[in-house]
């Protein structure tokens, strides 16, 4: 039981640190005719190296689906726009030592409960994090309408290597079932 009490908070914290990825598209859109794309807006951050990495990672994912990057959006089947937004957020973590008792039969320290009225100790920590969000939009160049959108959000680390890995993993996840209706998206 003590093992579960120690492991569960660690699993919960790990789950909170993961990127959140969502995609959306216009149902009924035929992606099979799209073979070329052009960037109309590339992502910009305070780190130009990260900007270039994001563009390269998105280009790689689209190339794996048979799409080719061309210079002009006028000659492309689709146009891409990517935006990065950040926001500072306060997070509160509360940890309990699980040593309290008095919660009824079978609950509490050592499995002895019942009426002592003493609780365990909890510690709360407030910390500030920066949440980064990458939004990738794909437009049909003929209709000028948005046809697909992917978003990925996650905590930005002080470690650049961690940010590179997390961003790359989020982009791979974003394009995992791309294009909608393809064989890979139905798995």
Automatic annotation (TrEMBL):
Domain of life: Bacteria
PROSITE patterns in alphabetical order: PROKAR_LIPOPROTEIN (PS51257)
Keywords, comma-separated and alphabetical: Signal
Xref: Pfam families: DUF4136 (PF13590)
Signal peptide stretch: 1-17
Domain DUF4136: 21-180
InterPro entries: DUF4136
UniProt name for this protein: DUF4136 domain-containing protein
Origin species: Candidatus Methylospira mobilis
């Amino acid at each position: 039981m003590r093992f579960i009490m120690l492991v569960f908070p660690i699993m919960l914290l790990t789950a909170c640190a993961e990127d959140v990825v969502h995609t959306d598209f216009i149902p009924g859109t035929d992606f099979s005719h799209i073979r070329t794309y052009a960037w109309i807006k590339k992502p910009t951050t305070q780190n130009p190296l990260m900007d270039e990495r994001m563009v390269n990672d998105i280009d790689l994912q689209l190339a794996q689906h048979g799409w080719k990057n061309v210079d002009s959006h006028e000659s492309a089947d689709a146009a891409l726009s990517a935006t990065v937004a950040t926001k500072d957020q306060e997070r509160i973590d509360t940890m309990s030592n699980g040593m309290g008792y008095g919660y009824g039969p079978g609950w509490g320290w050592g499995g002895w409960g019942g009426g002592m009225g003493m609780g365990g100790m909890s510690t709360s920590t407030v910390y500030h994090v920066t949440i980064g969000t990458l939004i990738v939009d794909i437009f049909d160049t003929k209709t000028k309408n948005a046809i697909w959108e992917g978003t990925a959000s996650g905590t930005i680390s002080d470690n650049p290597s961690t940010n590179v890995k997390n961003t790359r993993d989020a982009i791979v996840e974003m394009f995992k079932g791309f294009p909608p209706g393809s064989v890979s998206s139905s798995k």
